[in-house]
Here is the input.
Amino acid sequence: MDFLFQNDMRLYFVMPFIQGGELYKILKNEKKFKEQTVIFYAVQLIMAIDYLHNKNIIHRDLKLENIMIDQEGYIKIIDYGLAKKLDESEQDEATTYCGTPEYLAPEMVSRSGHDMSVDWWAIGVLMYEMLFGMTPFYNQNQRKLLKKIKTAKVLFPDKTKFKIDYSDDIMDLIIKLLDKDRETRLGTKGGAKEILAHPLFKKIDVNKVFNKTMDPPFMPDVKKSD
Here is the structure.
């Protein structure tokens, strides 16, 4: 946020202009991303969510439409309307049912209470979507979609039939993020450090991503900074 002001009726938030638009639109044009591109964006998502979690904030609405690309080709997470700050009285758990159906974790669907691990689940969904162009439990019927989130296994497209190239490492990571048991879901106990220790991230220089010194896979066509 750049600054804010108010009058007698309203509070105004003046936000930075993010020139590159939504990651959703880039994926829509590309249909699916190469594995290395997915890794590039996943590292940033994991770091950003870890920052929020260290402040006891759950985002709860991670999706491609809420991920923006800045003029340098790096991401920014937006839309904190469903975010929740946990306090000690809530015993590190929230109970409100909210979010976008395709990205909901099983415990959110079951309304059994949820914690920060719902964001790690959402990152698993996002990685799958970026890699294959669709969410892992997609169904036009919302009731069937929610049932699949609670009960169905994660299935991966046939590499030869669909002409998709992906590694066993990224498949393994997605499966571990989409663990229906939040107690054993990757990231629940060790956060970003636990996830970034996965073998998949040996394929990228995490420090270069953090310092924005790596060339991004997509650069927005920005003629002027304003």
In short: The longest strand covers residues 3-6. The radius of gyration is 18 Å. The mean pLDDT is 93. The chain has nine helices and six strands.
